[in-house]
Amino acid sequence: MVGRRVSQALTSDDAQSYLSDVKEAFHDEPSKYQEFINILNGIRELSVDKDSIVERVEELLEDHQDLLHGFHVFLPDEAKRNKHPHTKKKHADVEEFMNNLKTRFKSIDKDVVVTFCMVMTRFKEGRMSVKELQEEVIDTLYYHEDLIEEFLRVFKKKEFVISAAQKLHDKICK
C-alpha cells in the first residue's frame, strides 16, 4: 500500500495492506505498533475525537513519512483540513509544564518525578481514567499548587489529555 497508487474508492484490502506496512515498519518496536492499533481502536470505540487521533498518529509516524502519507489517504477530507491552529501552543504548554516539573523536583525530591511517570504510564496503558489521572497528579504534586494549576490547565480539554499524556510520558519518563 505504501508507495503504491491507490484508487479513489479505498477497500478493506487497502486497509489491510496499510496495516501490514505499519506492522513491518515497527517489527523491531512492537510497542509502537500496538500503540498504533490502540489509537485505531479509539476511532472505532469513539472514545477519542478525530483531531486527537490524527495528532497522535502524526507524532507516532513522524519518522515514517511514507506511512504518514498512507494514513492521510484514509482520512476524510474534513479531517485533512481541520488542523487546529492551537496545536502548537498546546504542545508548547506541555513542554513548559514538563520543564517546570523536572526543574522543580530535580534537586528537591526525584521520587516525585518517578511517581509522576508511574501515574502517566498507568494512564497511557489505559489503567486509569482522566479523572483518576488528575486526582493522582494532584496527590503527587501536593503543596505545589502552581504545578497543579499548570497541569490542570494543560490537561483541561478531554480530547487533548491522551495526546498530551503520551507526550509527557515519552519526554519525562524514558
From TrEMBL:
Its main location: nucleus. Keywords: Nucleus, Repressor. Pfam families: PAH. It is found in: Nucleus. PANTHER family: SIN3A, ISOFORM G, SIN3B-RELATED. This is Paired amphipathic helix protein Sin3-like 3 isoform X2.
